[in-house]
Design a protein that fits this description.
The protein has 490 residues and is α/β, with parallel strands linked by helices. The protein has 15 helices and 19 strands. It folds into 3 domains: 65 residues; 346 residues, 3-Layer(aba) Sandwich (Alkaline Phosphatase, subunit A); 52 residues, no CATH class. Bound molecules: calcium ion.
Length: 490
């Protein structure tokens, strides 16, 4: 060791270096001094090279073991899932009855899916979102009676969710708003088991009664009832919570998934804070307008936090508009029903609970990183089950091969590219069975019915003597049979 230290402490200052070089260059036949000097140079260079290589190797190994996300970027996901919002309520979908400037701006800066569909009521639609399964496969076709304190629950132990997969992949996961998938008094760990680290949700049932979601809301945050929000408007509380969650995840340098189950514009029709400020009567149009403002607040927060380039914001409705909530000002005129809504393409009748376009056709807008092209409109059919593989692909989360998932990723379309087309979308609701819609024809599992939906929003039973209808009927009937040959088994 002493020998090594002597070598390393050898004076190689420029002055000595020059004199040594001068000595080396001197034309003498042989010098032991010169020989040892060359030896010193070579040994020191070799030693430093070895030290440098070892340092590089160790630091590379350490970074790959501790910080895998620095190698594979994991974008954030914020999904805003509105309650009872048909496509026709947005101006960017050619709706004429509502004012939605923030959502229209979101669509202008992102990708708007023109033909997105979900089942016509909360529970089947939300279970399909979380599990990626068609309703007939997850078997939750009706509203789970959480509002009556049911002991039934959706079993996410048997049916894995994408939040479970993302959480296992390093994401911090949160959920807000409506949780109609189990009674929390009976199943207090249900949300955590569904894949969420934290939550602020409307606890629908408490102490033997149904609670409120709007004013004086009953919210459960991570297992505790919030006692500080009696005078607040529930949807405002949730947006504050989402912004806090995003800020905390950013500060912790951790990717996040947030499913924001927006409570608006589900009835009862109540005053919004804006109605109180303006001293005006509550209306569905005002509730949709307030929802629009809240979406604007969230997008502004994403910009303000500086995370837009790495955050996909997805806005979607869970089912069609509840038509009784809308009073048609033209009611009484020719062709105008009491609850008719209006679009540039025609009048929309019916809605939530119905296996038709008005009950299942919902808005879907994606906004955020520069890879999402501004102002793009995609006409591909999209089913709510498609979000499961889409979120997994966006976040580099592997789906186990053993897992059944009915969805297909729309990541290419989100980035303005051509994606895999699905032949139809599937919906179901208890009492009315299932339907398949291929973009032109709608087939029903009950009564062997077929509707002509080529001129939406108008649709009607197909003509009996139409060859194209016969062909569609045969094709969709075969699709029904193929689907049901592959049902879940416990
Ligand atoms: Ca709903």
């Amino acid at each position: 060791m002493k020998y090594l230290n002597d070598f390393l402490s050898n004076d190689l200052s420029p002055k000595n270096y020059a004199s040594n070089l001068h000595y080396l260059c001197k034309p003498t036949p042989f010098s032991w001094h010169a020989f040892f000097l060359v030896y010193h140079f070579m040994f020191r260079a070799l030693f430093f090279l070895v030290v440098l290589l070892c340092t590089c190797f160790l630091s590379l190994a350490a970074s790959s073991a501790i910080e895998p996300t620095s190698v594979t970027p994991q974008p954030n996901i914020l999904m805003i899932y509105a309650d009872d919002l048909g496509y026709e309520t947005l101006q960017c979908y050619d709706g004429l009855d509502f004012t939605t400037p923030k959502l229209d701006a979101m669509a202008a800066e992102g990708v708007r899916f023109n033909r997105a569909y979900a089942s016509p009521v909360c529970t089947p639609s939300r279970v399909s979102l979380l599990t990626g399964l068609y309703p007939f496969r997850h078997s939750h076709l009706g509203v789970l009676p959480v509002h009556k304190g049911t002991h039934q629950k959706v079993d996410f132990g048997k049916m894995p969710t994408f939040p479970q997969l993302l959480r296992a992949n390093g994401y911090t996961t949160s959920v807000t708003g409506k949780w109609q998938l189990a009674t929390l008094e009976v199943w207090p760990n249900h949300i955590r088991n569904a894949g969420f680290d934290s939550w602020c949700v409307w606890q629908i049932w408490r102490d033997g009664e149904k609670t409120s979601r709007h004013w004086n809301p009953t919210f459960n945050e991570d297992g505790q009832i919030r006692e500080d929000i009696q005078k607040r408007f529930g949807p405002d509380v949730l947006v504050d919570y989402v912004i806090e969650q995003m800020a905390e995840a950013q500060a912790a340098n951790q990717p996040f998934l947030i499913i924001h189950n927006e409570l608006l514009p589900h009835d009862p029709i109540v005053e919004t804070p804006e109605d109180r400020r303006l001293n005006r009567q509550p209306r569905l149009t005002h509730m949709v307008g307030y929802l629009d403002q809240l979406v604007g607040r969230l997008l502004d927060a994403v910009e303000r936090l500086g995370i837009r380039d790495n955050t996909y914001v997805v806005f979607m409705g869970d089912n069609g508009t509840h038509e009784v909530d809308f009073d048609n000002p033209k009611f009484g005129q020719p062709g105008e029903r009491k609850h008719t809504r209006h679009t540039r393409a025609g009048n929309v009748n019916g809605g939530k609970f119905e296996l038709n376009d008005a009950g299942t056709h919902v808005p879907l807008i994606v906004w955020g990183p520069p890879s999402v092209p501004a102002g793009q409109v995609c006409d591909d059919l999209v089913d709510v089950v498609d979000l499961f593989p889409t979120y997994c692909e966006l976040t580099n989360t592997a789906i186990p091969e053993s897992l059944t998932v009915d969805g297909r990723s729309i990541v290419p379309q989100i980035h303005g590219q051509t994606g895999e087309l699905r032949p139809w979308v599937h919906h179901a609701i208890s009492g009315k069975g299932e339907s398949l819609f291929d973009g032109s024809w709608r087939a029903f599992s009950q009564k062997d019915q077929l509707w002509d939906a080529r001129q939406l929003p108008a649709e009607s039973p197909a003509a009996a003597d139409d060859e194209r209808a016969d062909s569609a009927r045969a094709r969709l009937e075969e699709a029904f049979q193929t689907l049901h040959q592959n049902t879940l088994t416990d």
